[in-house]
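EI: anyone free to look at a 321-residue chain?
SC: sure, send it
EI:
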Amino acid sequence: MSELAASKPRLRVVLCAPRGFCAGVVRAIDIVERALQLYGPPVYVRHEIVHNRLVVDSLKAKGVVFIEELAEAPAGEHPVIFSAHGVAKSVPEEAEARKLFTIDATCPLVTKVHRVAQAHFKRGRRIILIGHAGHPEVIGTMGQLPPGAVTLVSSIEDVDRLPADDGRPIGFVTQTTLSVDDTHEIIAALRRRFPSIHVPPMEDICYATTNRQEAVKTAARRVEAVIVVGAANSSNSQRLREVAEREGCAAQLVADERGIDWKALENVGSVAVTAGASAPEALVKHILAALDGRFEIVLETLTTASESMAFPLPRVLREAV
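SC: here you go
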């Protein structure tokens, strides 16, 4: 053992699996990459394709132009791509009116939530959406229906403040990237308040969100600290941090290795590392390299589920190929 290695404190590093990219994120990035190959730059993307700066900057370097509103996209043959989070109905309607060439990269699991909300509406139900105000996915889901058709709740307190039963049937949908535990509590509150509420056979929280939270929950019980790799504006990454903290474990959310709070890792003998569904594996490797630079690390992997989900590209891209 070298003198340098001997001087470094020992650190057990538990690498959570599953972690990182989910099938919806892989599909969204593949859509943008394929569009660049087929149509050439510039390719326009409304909103960040996924919530990760490394991914966004990499695509910018290849000729992707990120816009917030369709008005920023010029008319012409270059495609405008809708992000994985989904958009309100008014967005494709505006695009059609302007004769823009659009490609929808909305995650199919988000599209499923849209369809469930629309089915509730057609059946005359009051619709409750469990989610976080201002999140692009929530804006897109609420925007599938007329204003006022969907009521957003983010907490048990919000459920308590809902208007009393007015005789109409009630149904709910959820944002796909929520805390599984928090959502169960809110659903339980909804069922207490409205015993006849329509409960879907499967909750809308996506498989990847559920799997990553379960891995972190298990790891947090075995380590002293957790590092979550992900963007601050990534809902699923924030939820991973919260899950670890709920288990009584110190947790930090970092965009990359430069964000690590080293002081918080002083006198820590074990740490778990995971990544949100929009964080590339390259960032995890950078985190591990940074840890290795300061500690003599002993690496182990904790696997709580296996994933094989994959989503096909939109027909317009498959047919173009």
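EI: The first strand starts at residue 10 and ends at 17.
SC: 👍
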